[in-house]
Design a protein that fits this description.
Elements: H1 18-46, E1 51-56, E2 59-64, H2 65-114, H3 131-161, H4 169-181
Antiparallel strand pairs: 1-2
Length: 183
């Protein structure tokens, strides 16, 4: 991954887990749409029983307030919806990226650790929200690696100390098998 000026990891790709991020953005935009629909509906409902006077083409016109303002309210809400939706998409994309990016990396690196690569270190940016979890997992990985090395040294010492001695064949087989497992 490329690094910025201070050595932190920069992400190249903003859509990391496309399904998660697309659903997150869609839900957020639907909430905005529902809010605007409720706003227009309430305004129409509360102004339904009042009258408004206005001039249209040099004539004085008296209309129901809801009928008089509905086109303007609808248009202004539509413009606001488009602008806020674009802004919401950008913000939710960045926020979901901040969640999905580290989780995607966690998943990938944990699979490698799960497959036995205890030299793999989980890396996240300093500002990522899950830095503490990454640090804990790295500490756990280090402790596991140390315990395995200790077991390996113990097995090697047992094999060396019994060299040239009469050892039951099943014990030799089990020690060799154990030694192969921890390599």
């Amino acid at each position: 991954m490329p690094k910025d000026k201070v050595g932190q990891i920069k992400r190249r790709q903003y859509f990391i887990q496309k399904d998660f991020q697309a659903k997150f953005i869609l839900k957020f935009c639907l909430i905005l749409l529902i809010g605007i629909i409720i706003s227009i509906g309430l305004l129409f409902l509360f102004s339904k029983n009042s009258l408004t006077s206005s001039f249209e083409q040099s004539r004085l016109v008296i209309k129901n307030t809801a009928d008089a303002i509905l086109p303007g309210v609808f248009l202004s809400h539509l413009i606001a919806l488009v602008l806020i939706t674009v802004l919401a998409i950008v913000i939710t994309l960045l926020v979901s990226h901040k969640l999905a990016g580290p989780l995607f990396r966690f998943e990938k690196e944990l699979k490698e650790i799960g497959n036995g690569d205890l030299n793999k270190v989980i890396k996240v940016r300093k500002k990522d929200q899950i830095k503490a979890m990454a640090d804990s997992l790295n500490k756990m990985r280090e402790n596991l690696q140390k315990k395995i090395l200790d077991i390996k040294e113990d097995v090697e010492q047992i094999i060396e100390s019994t060299a040239g001695q009469e050892i039951p064949p099943d014990l030799v087989t089990r020690l060799d098998h154990l030694n192969q497992k921890i390599k």
